[in-house]
Hints:
The complex is a heterodimer.
Chain A: H1 2-6, H2 8-41, H3 45-59, H4 63-76, H5 83-109, H6 112-120, H7 125-140, H8 142-155, H9 167-178, H10 181-210
Helix pairs in contact in A: 2-3, 2-5, 2-9, 2-10, 3-5, 4-5, 5-7, 5-8, 6-7, 8-10, 9-10
Chain B: E1 4-15, E2 18-29, E3 33-37, H1 44-50, E4 59-64, E5 67-68, H2 74-80, E6 83-86, H3 98-108, H4 114-127, H5 143-155, E7 161-165, H6 173-188, E8 193-196, H7 200-206, E9 209-214, E10 217-222, H8 224-229, H9 234-243
Parallel strand pairs in B: 3-8, 3-9, 6-7, 7-8
Antiparallel strand pairs in B: 1-2, 1-4, 4-5, 9-10
Amino acid sequence: MGVVVDNAGQYLAGMAMTVALTLVSFSAALVIGTVVAAFRVSPVPPLRTAGTLWVETVRNTPLTVLMVLFFFGFTKLGIQYSAFTSAVIVLSAYTSTFVAETVRSGINAVAKGQAEAARSLGLTFPQVLGRVVLPQAFRTVLAPLGSVFIALIKNSSIASIISVVELTEVADRLNNETARPVAVFLGAGMAYLLLTLPSGFLVGVLERRVAIKR
Amino acid sequence: MVEPLVVATKVNKWFGPLHVLKDVDLTVEKGEVVVVLGPSGSGKSTLCRTLNRLEPIHSGTIEIDGVGLPEEGKALAKLRSDVGMVFQSFNLFAHKTVLQNVTLGPEKVRKMPRREARERAMALLERVGIAEKADRYPAELSGGQQQRAAIARALAMDPKVMLFDEPTSALDPEMIKEVLDVMLELAHEGTTMIVVSHEMGFARSAARRVAFMDEGRIVEVAPPEQFFHDPESARARDFLGKVLAH
């Protein structure tokens, strides 16, 4: 494992980039995914269709394909984003579909009477959703949202194919220099664990803290 | 002087092939308490839910204070804010305290300042006898307390009319009284109320009129003393014979 220790600085820089990709993309995915979930349960048919189209096209395309198509395809069209920005956009879009489906299942799990009571008070559809239904839905789906978050940490490795220097790209480059794939990628794997394991733990803590008394 | 507040005219509704409301006419005047009785499946709950359009109707009209129920949207939300609703299963917002349940509508719909909304909410909780539970969550309250909180939540909007959809049907017997006491007080204060219920005692003491429903129709509307002692329809006599036998 000498190769890992010797290059600890690079690994740390890679982890920092992975964390940055994950946090920025997840924040965006939460917002987009929640809006898409709201579209999918809205009483307005065109919104429902738009939400479904977004989920079914983006979710059913491999992340690698999306990453390459976006980065190189848009360059061809003369629109150029940095590799980091491109990776964030693609990861956000991809993850938003999983967030949307998770949040939608949470919305469906909220008792129907909750929304009826809110409507009866005169709250508008966005208020019913924002004040009554979503706060309860999010509490219900914290655990699966945590899984989406952990999946995103690992999915961010796909950014390496457009040369964002995150953990996997660091490992790839070190491997090219040293030709020691097992040691180099074991190091990367452990570094991912250092990010994913605490994430799972934190989700558990959060889940207990916001649980609704029933 | 007669001031009709809720006017339902020739209301029809189907659930799939099931014709649940058949040409229902009902007029409720300002300050009046109307109790809707009838066997289960007679459509009384559905009628109650159509009055604030929680259930859309297929034909006929429903007017609240002279305004026809609009389509789903801002105008309907505004109209609903004037129609209080109390549900069989309470439906208090599970993630909010009792106090927050009561202040939500006034703050978000009426745009009332938070302080004022809190003060009024506390006064209402006092009135229904659960002020000491203001900072508790619904799940920490008994059924009777939850239903009284739900009544306070509806009253906080200063509604023109209060709808009660079987408000005591989910309660243990010893909790029914505490809820009915609150409702009786409202009735005596002149609140316009439409109450779907099986509580014959409440109908006798609080109702100005009883509407008896069977198989989607309003079969008979009469003052309680007349309805309970000398119902016109055979169906009502049969129903009363069954529920008052013991």
